[in-house]
Amino acid sequence: MIQIKSADFIISAGLSAHFPPGGLPECAFIGRSNVGKSSLMNMLLGRKQLVKTSKTPGKTVTINFFLVNGIFHFVDLPGYGFAKRSKSELERWREAIEDYLTTRTELKLILLLIDGRHGLQKSDEQMVEFLSHHRLPWIPVFTKIDKLTNNEKARLRRHSPDTVCVSSVTGEGKEEAWTCIERHLL
Q1: Rounded CA Rg of the chain
Q2: Mapped to the 3 state alphabet, what secondary structure does 101-160 carry?
Q3: The dihedral sign for the CA sequence 161, 168, 43, 64
Q4: Which of 3, 85, 157, 168 could form a disulfide with 43 if both were Cys (CB 3.0 to 4.6 A apart)?
Q5: What phi and psi, each to the nearest 5 degrees, are found at residue 95?
Q6: Rounded to whole angstroms, how far apart are CA atoms 132 and 12?
Q7: pLDDT per residue over 58-113, tens digit each?
Q8: How many CA atoms lie within 13 A of 1 on its CB side?
Q9: What's residue 133's pLDDT?
Q10: Could you tell me if residue 100 is left (phi over 0), alpha (psi between -120 and 50 degrees) or otherwise beta?
Q11: Are 26 and 75 in contact (CB under 8 A)?
Q12: 165: β partners
């Protein structure tokens, strides 16, 4: 497992013109609002508050870039699904996310976070279709597995060979997640 020596916030970008210059590989985190994207990133980086967390859905409104060890980026994308925002603001988020996912050549892996307690929701299925249609490299990551029984965890792991199950609370699945990330980025 990679040793984290540095992890720094770089920029929040609402438009592709504000994305940092290219060159470094990127791992993007996407999922429904409040699925645990920020908590997972903090757990993986060994930092408690580098990536801001909130109990209120829709707090991440821009695409946030974090430089890890000076050699790759973690990218925190706004959540999809429930968020108390105007339709025009939600549409801007959708466009920014779609632009990032389909045009960013540095993007090497997308971690599609799915709440392990609820499984795939309709909006997750739509994201799977989008990622598959565009032939983007992604793996399913089931979050909040500390709230599941061992049988429920086993059922989730049968989704695909690349399925990762994690808990930001207990750290379970951290090494598994890093193995996938390293395989695509390094």
Answers
A1: 15
A2: HHHCCCEEEEEEEEECCCCCCHHHHHHHHHHHHCCCCEEEEEECHHHCCHHHHHHHHCCC
A3: positive
A4: 168
A5: -65, -40
A6: 27
A7: 556 789 999 999 999 999 998 886 556 677 766 777 788 899 999 999 999 999 99
A8: 10
A9: 96
A10: alpha
A11: yes
A12: 142
Contact by Cβ (8 Å): 36, 143: yes
**Token pair in block for residue 40:** 């997972």
The rounded distance, in Å, linking the Cα atoms of 55 and 65 is 21
CB contact at 8 A, 63 and 78: yes
Residue listed under structure tokens 């996407």: 30
In this structure, are residues 125 and 151 in contact, taking their beta carbons and an 8 Å threshold? Answer: no
Residue type for position 54: S
Rounded to whole angstroms, the maximal C-alpha distance in the chain is 46
Q: What CA–CA distance (Å, rounded) separates 86 from 64?
A: 21
Helices 37-45 and 174-185, interaxial angle, to 10°? 80
Helix (H) or strand (E) holding 75: strand 72-76
> At 11, is the secondary structure helix, strand, or coil?
strand
Tokens, residue 13: 């970008």
pLDDT at residue 48, as a whole number: 85
